[in-house]
């Protein structure tokens, strides 16, 4: 179980086939303003890969883009809406098909309004992950050990979470509804980028 740091792209052939967990770290929450600094990716076999982008990067990253766009790989996110928009805006590639552990959590953990990654990892898997570095500066020349560990932990548990959440989605008869949400999610991210960020297009008023 290791964390690997790469510059500007993922090396070819480092991921096993199958679903990949993806997370992003940016300079902030406004996607066109706040540049993409780091993309974390894991195949769920125990290693995490961190791909760092320098200021002024071209974001060419052909290997990473191919993984994100691969129609045969499910991309696992936690609150994928944000990450999918960042990947689309900076890498120019739309992630699909996707699975979002936050949406799945909302559909089955109806007994709580706490759907943060830390909370569902603790409840469903029994691990305690630190969120201390969440608001740190991801744009500096050197990532601290704490930042690397934090960034890697954001993708480390998504495969196991999907397995647990799928059991509950089946149990509660909501798998089809979840899949419909996942199918729409890339389009929700595109709506964010196109100028409908905080507008519920399904709302009456
Ligand atoms: Mn993160």
Reported for the largest beta sheet, the result is: 6 strands, mixed
Structural class: alpha/beta
Specify the oligomeric state. single chain
- What is the spatial order of strands in the main beta sheet? 1-4-3-2-5-6
Bound molecules: manganese (II) ion
What distance separates the N and C termini?
50 Å
Categorize the overall geometry. Answer: globular
Q: Using the coordinates shown, work out and report the CATH topology.
A: Nucleotidyltransferase, domain 5
Low-confidence stretches: none
Computed Rg: 16 Å
Task: Round the mean pLDDT to the nearest integer and report it.
Answer: 96
InterPro entries: 3'-5'_exonuclease_dom, RNase_D-like, RNaseH-like_sf, RNaseH_sf
Protein name: Ribonuclease D
Pfam families: DNA_pol_A_exo1
Domain 3'-5' exonuclease: 1-170
What can you tell me about this protein's structure?
With 205 residues, this protein is an alpha/beta fold. It has one domain (3-194): Ribonuclease H-like superfamily/Ribonuclease H (Nucleotidyltransferase, domain 5, 2-Layer Sandwich). It is 40% helix and 15% strand. It has helices at residues 62-69, 80-91, 101-108, 117-125, 145-156, 158-171, 175-194; strands at 3-7, 20-26, 36-42, 48-52, 75-77, 98-100. Strands 1-4-3-2-5-6 form a 6-stranded mixed sheet, with helices on both faces. The longest helix has 20 residues, at 175-194. The protein starts with a strand and ends in an 11-residue tail after the last helix. The relative contact order is 0.17. The chain binds manganese (II) ion. Residues 23, 25, 154 line the site of manganese (II) ion. Manganese (II) ion is lined by residues 23, 25, 154. It comes from Sphingobium nicotianae. This is Ribonuclease D. InterPro entries: 3'-5'_exonuclease_dom, RNase_D-like, RNaseH-like_sf, RNaseH_sf.
């Amino acid at each position: 179980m290791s964390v690997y740091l790469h510059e500007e792209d993922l090396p070819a052939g480092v991921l096993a086939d199958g679903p990949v967990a993806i997370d992003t770290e940016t300079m902030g929450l406004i996607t066109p303003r706040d540049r993409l600094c780091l993309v974390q990716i894991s195949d769920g076999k125990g290693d995490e890969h961190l791909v760092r982008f320098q200021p002024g990067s071209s974001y060419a990253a052909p290997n990473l883009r191919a993984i994100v766009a691969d129609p045969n790989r499910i991309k696992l996110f936690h609150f994928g809406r944000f990450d999918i928009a960042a990947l689309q805006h900076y890498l120019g590639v739309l992630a699909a098909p996707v699975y979002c552990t936050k949406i799945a959590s909302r559909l089955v953990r109806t007994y709580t309004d706490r759907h943060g990654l830390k909370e569902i990892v603790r409840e469903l898997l029994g691990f305690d992950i630190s969120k201390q570095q969440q608001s740190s500066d991801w744009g500096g020349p050197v990532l601290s050990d704490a930042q690397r560990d934090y960034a890697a932990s954001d993708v480390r548990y998504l495969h196991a979470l999907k397995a647990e959440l799928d059991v509950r989605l089946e149990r509660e008869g909501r798998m089809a509804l979840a899949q419909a949400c996942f199918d729409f999610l890339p389009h929700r991210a595109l709506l964010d980028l196109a100028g409908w960020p905080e507008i519920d297009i399904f709302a009456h008023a």
